[in-house]
Amino acid sequence: MKGKKPARRGVGVLVAAFLVLAVVLGALLFRKYEGAKTPPPVPAVQEKAGYHQVALFFAAESADALVREGRVIEPCDEVSDCLESILEELINGPVTDLAPVLPVTGMFNSVKLEGTVATVDFAGELLDALPAGSNSEMMAAYAIVNSLALNYPQVRMVQFTLDGKPLQTLKGHLDIRAPLAPDFSLEKSPAAAADLKGKK
């Protein structure tokens, strides 16, 4: 008789443990069920980046060097669209006392990137309105090349065309039959450009 009591006590312990286990498992299953009914939060869609800063090259007042000017442009989805925005801003001209490199009335057809070469296709009106002279021609060409390459490193060279046809020069001086690589040696700091102007 005395040997049966521990057996009953052991059964009670097992039943209590089973009940506790059942409650715990039930709670876990309930939580899992509730989690399955509630969809996970949708991650916030990242909005398109806002306006961003670029550096454009315009001519120093002495007209024999390029100087950077900061500009804010709208966001763009395709690299070619971004390159066109930069060219548009170069045509709009500087907002400081730098000299424009392209005529405000200038027009272009497109800017396309193929590999590492950006092709700038001008319209005839732009070349017609471009000032004559070797300095003006060089500043115009390299302001474009340097501005595109500086802001978009995937641009290693720039080819110029006119209405889809190859160009030999812009105004009879600089040879642009082959794509041009950027030439940052033409750049001067604003202070250095001011010194050059003062010496003339």
* Computed structural class: alpha+beta
Neighbour order of strands in the largest sheet: 3-4-5-6
Number of helices: 5
Summarize the helix and strand pattern as letters: HEEHEEHHEEH
Return residue spans where pLDDT drops below 50 for at least 5 consecutive residues. 1-7, 32-48
Major pleated sheet: 4 strands, mixed
**DSSP summary, beta strand count:** 6
Indicate the proportion of strand residues. Answer: 15-25%
What does the overall shape look like? elongated
User: Overall pLDDT, averaged?
Assistant: 81
The helix fraction, in percent, is: 40-55%
CA gyration radius, whole angstroms: 34 Å
Measure the end-to-end span: 123 Å
Give an account of the 3D structure.
A hairpin with a 6-residue loop joins strand 1 and strand 2. The strands form 2 sheets. This protein has a 4-stranded mixed sheet. The chain has a two-stranded antiparallel sheet with strand order 1-2. It has a domain at 52-186. It is built from 5 helices and 6 strands; from the N terminus they run αββαββααββα. It is of the alpha+beta class and 200 residues long. It has helices at residues 4-37, 79-92, 124-129, 134-151, 190-199; strands at residues 52-59, 66-73, 108-114, 117-122, 157-162, 165-166.
